[in-house]
């Protein structure tokens, strides 16, 4: 059965922006490239800085006023990235970290290795699964606006989307199950090339997919049996792409329009879209294999072992007409992804539905890593690596990215690289995060623990 989803040119009637979203960088201070500026905006408020002791909770942390502490933070972060680049782990990377109302931005390595061009802080990257965070924030806004509900069936918006279970039943799939990856849908890279998704011509969203529409993608996906009964198990999947199609159908607008009008526009995310807005800033992607670093081919079929592969197509980011994959298809900068983490953390202070997005929404189920899962990202129940608080949410992307958002400490980080796969098994983000959490602990005299404990009293700095 054909599935109708709005698509086509990214123009049309305006969708009223959600009043709950606003630009998160207003009045914030930046530290860039390891060379902190005068931080005049923060210094002007220094006389009003108060120190309090409080129990763990959402702190809205404001770091110490010490210029030395800021310089040490920037230098420490720069050193971590530089050392990883020197060790050959990445070709180039940009990191943006936030502690309360301050942000630090570091770039390292090569933007274009062949041209000898250093990494630029405003580089654009193919997001792969970091796209899912944008899709989830869009879903949160549409649900908050009453356009959809978590327990709505997918068929309310996509009547033809009725995949069957392995035993031939046609179950109801809800938006809640899409957002938590408990829908029973799967990904092609999780099966061999002889698997049903491959046979059905279903795209994972990172391939070029010339001539494929989002409606046809949904039709093909609906023709493939589910892995399991919806709600019975967690399985990473194309659910975010289905969610994107649902939101387009619910609004009557192409997903590109909807994303711009409800998320990227209100948040001032000028670098973010389903294609590169400025090709000169789009970082060339690389892979590291037995022969060392090399530019990614187009297409690049990356072996995952066991007969499984992942298909990249760097050219997808250059095509404004390609179908909008809400799970893999966006382009953005580290700055914009960092801004999005502020919106993600803000959900923790919102309505019951907002808070659901940053909760362990699949309990008692677990993801394949043993963590919980929220409305589109991992929920760290008891982090065993890194300094993160329980309740931190995080995710990554196969093009070489990781992000985290800790609504308990009001700390977040976005690490975007131009080197596929390597960051997924790297400790780089954990090392960078440790420096951010240590900075939160620095007191007015520059004295404090190297990193904050997960439990117990914490130093809180509040501008009044």
Q: How does this model look, in words?
A:
The protein has a domain at 29-127 and 269-288 and 322-463: 3-Layer(aba) Sandwich (Beta-lactamase). The chain is α+β, with helices and mostly antiparallel strands and 464 residues long. It is globular. It has helices spanning 40-43, 67-86, 131-144, 175-179, 196-199, 214-222, 239-251, 255-264, 334-346, 352-357, 428-441; strands spanning 29-32, 35-36, 49-54, 92-99, 102-112, 117-118, 124-126, 286-289, 292-295, 300-305, 308-312, 331-333, 372-373, 378-379, 393-397, 401-406, 411-417, 458-463.
Note poorly predicted spans. 9-64, 443-464
* Named CATH topology of the domain at 29-127 and 269-288 and 322-463: Beta-lactamase
Going by helix content, strand content and strand pairing, the class is alpha+beta
Q: How many separate helices?
A: 11
Our Rg estimate from Cα atoms comes to 22 Å
Major sheet details: 10 strands, mixed
Q: Write down the CATH class of the domain at 29-127 and 269-288 and 322-463.
A: Alpha Beta
Q: Averaging pLDDT over every residue, what do you get?
A: 84
Strand percentage lies at 15-25%
User: N-to-C SSE series?
Assistant: EEHEHEEEEHHHHHHEEEEEHHEEEEEHE
Give the CATH superfamily of the domain at 29-127 and 269-288 and 322-463: DD-peptidase/beta-lactamase superfamily
Assigned CATH architecture of the domain at 29-127 and 269-288 and 322-463? 3-Layer(aba) Sandwich
Strand element count: 18
